[in-house]
Design goal:
Elements lengths: L5 H9 L20 H10 L19 H6 L4 E4 L2 E2 L6 E2 L5 E2 L5 E5 L2 E6 L19 H4 E2 L3 H11 L3 E4 L9 H7 L1 H10 L1 H26 L5 E5 L12 H22 L4 E5 L8 H6 L4 E3 L10 H8 L4 E6 L8 H15 L5 E5 L8 H14 L4
Parallel strand pairs: 1-8, 8-9, 9-10, 10-11, 11-12, 12-13
Antiparallel strand pairs: 2-7, 3-4, 4-5, 5-6
Helix pairs in contact: 5-8, 6-7, 7-8, 8-9, 12-13
């Protein structure tokens, strides 16, 4: 059997071909280890402490040593935050970000609790809101040299890590409050359209800054927008096509031009089966996290309907808490059996690992390396 390096393996899988084994991923968009899980695994592996990569999250660590330990095929390139892009801490432990949204950590989740556009009633009410610019948010200094070095001196598949974790539905829901924005889509669509248009301008500028620096070296570019719940879509397919899809299409066209050899990775939780053709239509190549427990998202159904058109990324669920090694081994083998044939599958956790034991994580990746071999 021919052996492939990490980058070649990923490229073949994304092109729906079978390399030597399925690619493995970890510590990307929606596949991070929450701090509790990370610190426990770090100590279990006997690794020394390192500083967090980010703040304002419950998953703040990106650790190359763990990626190497599990033979992960991908490495992320992060856009750097500007000096203005800081969070302001409050006495109750909550914090406000550069967008003016106030968040509070509740259990493993970071929830928005105050919304700067909550009282907007008309377009004129938006005049006083200070929209951040790409330069307010990020800088790309030094990224080109770093990306070039990674590309030339390693064999990993390189990923432009999602700098904007909230998309054209998520972000307005945080800016305005979810219930209010969803009502706005129906009652005053011109306000919703204006907000999305302003976000599109900012997002195009951010991704242009990022990909002008690293676009020629990356094999994947991450974007995200949660469109589904466990049982249904958050908005109707028609409302998605009227409001969200046009903005996605324009942004993804820019990404494709600036990173011509990269796949577009789109994260969305939930029951999104009915929107997968639309995501393919706007240029999405990789769907994450493949939440097979959601209504209508069974692995076999996804593979049969879209297995030739999109790569599935993630899909390993049922890893939280106290589970047996037999259970995680069965989960991994079942997903590989269904999603891996013919390529088009990258194995990773389905969403962030909240409270997962080191033994479970080790069993997961050991099984994937051994069982995910193509004959």
């Amino acid at each position: 059997m021919k052996s492939y390096n990490h980058r070649d393996r990923v490229i073949l899988a994304l092109n729906h071909e079978e390399p030597d084994r399925i690619p493995l991923d970890l510590m990307g968009n929606a596949s991070m280890l929450l701090d509790k899980t990370y610190l426990r695994l770090r100590d279990y592996l006997g690794l020394s402490p390192i500083p967090p990569k980010r703040q304002g999250s419950t998953a703040n660590y990106y650790d190359e040593r763990i990626l190497e330990y599990f033979d992960i095929d991908f490495r992320r390139i992060f856009l750097k935050k500007s000096r203005q892009n800081k969070i302001s801490m409050h006495s109750d432990g909550s914090f406000t970000d550069i967008w003016g949204v106030r968040y509070k950590v509740i259990g493993p989740f970071v929830n928005s609790i105050e919304h700067p556009l909550a009282k907007v009633e008309s377009l004129s009410d938006l005049e006083s809101y200070k929209w951040p610019t790409a330069e307010d948010l990020y800088i790309a200094d030094g990224l080109t040299d770093g990306a070039k070095k990674l590309y030339n001196e390693t064999e990993y598949a390189l990923v432009a890590r999602n700098p904007l974790s909230e998309g054209f539905l998520d972000r307005p829901c945080h800016l305005m409050g979810m219930e209010r924005f969803l009502i706005m889509l129906v009652q005053t669509p011109e306000i919703a359209e204006y907000i999305i248009e302003r976000l599109l301008e900012i997002y195009i500028d951010v991704y242009s800054m990022f990909l002008d620096a690293v676009g020629h070296y990356v094999q994947m570019v991450e974007v995200a927008d949660d469109l589904g719940t466990q049982d249904s879509l958050i908005i109707s397919p028609q409302m998605y096509r009227d409001f969200i899809k046009p903005a996605e299409s324009e942004l993804y066209e820019v990404i494709q031009k600036k990173a011509p050899d990269a796949a577009i990775f789109h994260h969305t939780d939930g029951a999104v089966f009915d929107l997968i053709p639309d995501l393919i239509d706007v240029g999405v190549n990789v769907l994450n996290p493949v939440q097979t427990s959601a209504r209508g998202m069974e692995a076999k159904r996804l593979k049969e309907n879209f297995g030739n058109s999109i790569t599935f990324h993630g899909a390993i669920e049922n890893v939280e808490g106290e589970i047996t090694s037999e259970e995680i081994i069965s989960e991994v083998k079942n997903r590989i059996d269904v999603l891996a044939p013919g390529g088009g599958y990258v194995l990773a956790p389905c969403n962030h690992m909240i409270d997962v034991s080191p033994d479970t994580i080790i069993s997961m990746y050991k099984t994937a390396r051994e069982y995910g071999v193509y004959a």
